[in-house]
């Protein structure tokens, strides 16, 4: 494909020309997304060692990529939001003035593509024909990024045609640079719908359609256009009566979104006819429809899932999805060139993710943030509704994190404002998905701490605004699959058994399931949930279904302090809700 003439493409052509003049590539290639293009790129990557062919018998069409060992996760400390007014970025983001941000990045991009080809990737986030979808163009010098964007987005000619029709798109400029951690920045310019990313080839740092566009830039855009861009999976839950409810759920990275999105119901439920379908596993864009309900699309077309822990037992649908046409990044290898990771439950590693002989004493076979990239269509539970331009109506929104203590298995918000507070107060232990210490408790409101492209105080106001008397808003819940006992063991079996909790939620939506009111929200008693066939210790029963007043008093004091960090911009309605509950906890 070559650059097209035509007035609405002028701004695209001019930008591409400007970038080429700055970065000085040897060649410019416009990606059309065709199979022939993909084959040529893949062959070139195989030839230069960027991709290693996996066992064609067991994993046809699949590849291993080893990233630079210093480039294995998102880098939150090097991620910036550049707004003209510092307060618009908020205490939740690193900030730089837009002019400084551009100057810093353009100095890095200067001549950086010499000797390389520059790829121009037009892409659409969401179904090509959906009014909820948005387009972007990523310019990159990484063929690995092109191959991943091809799986993760609707990339190529149809996206370019939509850009030509609409005239506006998000501009993303990316170069792997020298992969030097000291020359690495992920910079966002939400007011200009622009992203500049330099020095990393990994995941959310480099596949700009994902976190940079679909969350940081889109959240900013969504605020001004009256919709929501969220870090949420979307699943369809079909009951034995054949009714399907759609649930959107926010959890921080590497807290089981992919597993929940692809859940297989426990035996007894399967017999009764329960079914879970997958619309998305990471990002959800939603907007009120004419009936006032929130309609959601998954802006992505593929999964960039965490490999370790994925097994026939934990996530059979994910494992089935990645048997072919998959790019694995930073996993280990077996003697016969099959991908391997900790928790796979079969096979044995001989080579680790750095390409060295596997030595359990030295390092794990797979990096803890190793990933698979695969088309969503390969998932056995893939929902046809993912292609529906209208989106799916959301019945319940779920927030959750890794909380080893205090937080029970599930509770329900009394109303929307309370639900927004529950989301705003979310906390979780950090994971390997971002560089930095793992297992440290931090507040991660709505799992958007690393991804909200503007001030959290304004973000919460935006959420509160949806309660306008016209909208038919979903019920809001909080879950904790990660509660631990005195011995450090997980008290809830999780995985497929989580369906029992989802069933209760739908029962609450339909008005058929019971709950007890407490200051923190409505909790099920153990008899409100179907626990047939689940063995829970007395400790588990107490901790999963109990309400610990003293601990919650402390938690609410800490939530109050957290909201104060945002100063007067924090909506009074949210502070009022926190104070009301804190007072009830004292009674
Ligand atoms: O690296 S990504 O941001 O794409 C994945 C994640 O952390 O959720
Ligand atoms: Mn994510």
Task: Describe the SSE topology.
Layout (H helix, E strand, L loop, with lengths): L9 H14 L3 E4 L4 H14 L3 E2 L9 E3 L13 E3 L4 H4 L4 E2 L2 H12 L7 E9 L8 E7 L2 H10 L1 E2 L1 H10 L3 E6 L9 E5 L4 E5 L4 H4 L2 H17 L2 E3 L1 E7 L5 E7 L6 H5 L5 H6 L2 E6 L3 E5 L5 E4 L4 E5 L9 H6 L5 E3 L2 E3 L4 E2 L8 E3 L19 E5 L16 E9 L9 E3 L3 H9 L2 E3 L11 E3 L12 H10 L9 E5 L19 H12 L5 E3 L2 E3 L14 H8 L3 H16 L7 H15 L1
Parallel strand pairs: 1-6, 3-19, 4-5, 4-10, 7-9, 9-11, 14-24, 24-28
Antiparallel strand pairs: 2-3, 6-7, 6-8, 10-11, 12-16, 13-14, 13-15, 16-17, 17-24, 18-23, 19-23, 20-21, 20-22, 25-28, 26-27, 29-30
Helix pairs in contact: 2-5, 12-17, 16-17
Provide the CATH architecture of the largest domain.
Alpha-Beta Complex
- Give the amount of beta strand, in percent: 15-25%
Question: What is the CATH fold-level name of the largest domain?
Answer: Phosphoenolpyruvate Carboxykinase, domain 3
Number of strands: 30
Largest sheet composition: 9 strands, mixed
Radius of gyration: 23 Å
Percent helix, as a range, is: 25-40%
Note poorly predicted spans: 1-5
- What count of helical segments does DSSP give? 17
Give the names of the bound compounds. sulfoacetic acid, manganese (II) ion
Mean pLDDT: 97
EC number: 4.1.1.32
Function: Catalyzes the conversion of oxaloacetate (OAA) to phosphoenolpyruvate (PEP), the rate-limiting step in the metabolic pathway that produces glucose from lactate and other precursors derived from the citric acid cycle.
Organism: Novilysobacter ciconiae
Catalytic activity: oxaloacetate + GTP = phosphoenolpyruvate + GDP + CO2
